[in-house]
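Reading group handout, session on sequence-to-structure problems. Before we discuss, look at one worked example. The prompt was deliberately terse, the way you'd type it at a terminal:

> structure Keratin 222

The input record follows.
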Amino acid sequence: MNFGPGTKCNRRTQHRSYSRILSRFIKYSQEEAAWAQVNQGGAALREARAELAEARKQWHALQVEIETLHAMEKGLETSLQQTQRLYSSQLQDLSQVISRLEGELEQVRNGLATQRQRHNHLLNTKMRLEREISTYRRLLEREEGRYNCNIQLVKHMFKLRDIDKRLQLMLKLIKNVSCVSLQDRKDRQSDQAVEGSFFRGNPKLRKKSVSLRFDLHMSMADEGCAQTKQDSLPDVEVRLVMKRSRSIASITHTSTTHSAS
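And the output record:
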């Protein structure tokens, strides 16, 4: 099939129109795509702006929180410094107290050691004194035995002396009684004459006599002796019974006078 020159012109014209339409379509599609991208970019921009505003808000909040944390940090640092100063002073005081207590503990230990030494010394002294006391006690018991023997001898000597004294007193009393008996005989002879003349005129009167009793008691206690009842000698008693008339004065001799003589 043959085409003429008019046909070729029409084809060129159609081709040009097609190319123009195609270029327009491409531009239109490109514009739509660009507008779509612009729209998408605006939405993204809006979202980005919203996110930026939110980020700014968060940033402001974080700034406030950071400032608050900085203030808290400063306050904590200040309180930490104060606490450090306080506890450092307390530690110094406690270290001084500990050093003082350690010194006192050392003194107490030294005192305990000294007291332990003194206690041991006193214990040794006590044991030594107890041994010496037991030794002295045995010696004293021996000396007491000897002393008791000497006391018995002395008591025996005193007894002998007392017997001698009592015998001497007995002899004196016997002499006095003999003298009294002789004097009484003489008085009786003279009284018989007087009584004979007296009762001759008074026959109703009866002769009354009195009994003269001389009790002579001598006792001497042994001084320094515990058993006086067993060791003492019995009392010596001398009795003289005489009959006299009431007209003659009675002769009395007390035991105290004889004991004093």
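Points for discussion. First: Strands lie at 209-213, 241-245. Second: Confidence is low (pLDDT under 50) at residues 205-261.
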